[in-house]
Design a protein that fits this description.
The complex is a heterodimer of chains A (112) and B (113). Chain A has strands at 4-7, 10-13, 18-25, 31-37, 44-50, 53-57, 64-70, 73-79, 87-94, 102-103, 107-111. Chain A is mostly beta strands and 112 residues long. The chains are: A mainly beta (112), B mainly beta (113). Chain A binds chain B through residues 4, 6, 31, 40-43, 45, 48, 50, 55-56, 90, 92, 94, 96-106, 108, and chain B through 34, 36, 41-46, 49, 89, 98-101, 103-106.
Chain lengths: 112, 113
Amino acid sequence: DTEVTQTPKHLVMGMTNKKSLKCEQHMGHRAMYWYKQKAKKPPELMFVYSYEKLSINESVPSRFSPECPNSSLLNLHLHALQPEDSALYLCASSQTGADTQYFGPGTRLTVL
Amino acid sequence: GESVGLHLPTLSVQEGDNSIINCAYSNSASDYFIWYKQESGKGPQFIIDIRSNMDKRQGQRVTVLLNKTVKHLSLQIAATQPGDSAVYFCAEKVLGGYNKLIFGAGTRLAVHP
């Protein structure tokens, strides 16, 4: 298994909703990442987990809350989002924090 | 500040021609560079990487060239095919930090029959 999977593929939510994005990999990678990508822009790093511990938070608003339940799973909990948070949310993983990152297909999020 | 940029935002080529996508970087301390391909509606896909102790690396139909003197990176695609149409991002790994990739702005490659 050499892929990163993400669910759901698409998500539409209101500004008062609470939802979660999920990411999974079975490559034995110990570093996992959340990125946000707006249309026609490169991915922007949000969070990095290493060995299930949060190691980088790129000054992301608290309405985004990451969680790493185990070495294969990464969640992003969403609450009280704004329309400008609409974007493609990408998960990535790497063997360790120093290795090549491999990306999932992303979740297309629309906030109404 | 640190930045990775691309010279051409859009590149149009004929099927069968060779494509060259360029990237400039400004941090001379960077030691690792990656090219990703992103098709519409998909996540970035790893294509090829190169470390700063190399000038050239070849893969299947792709070659990455690194010129540290002028801080320039290029991706060459041989015999470009319609399936190569995508946005290509170069990414730079910052020395000393965690595995934080700095992405370039991206170049759209359009392959015409």
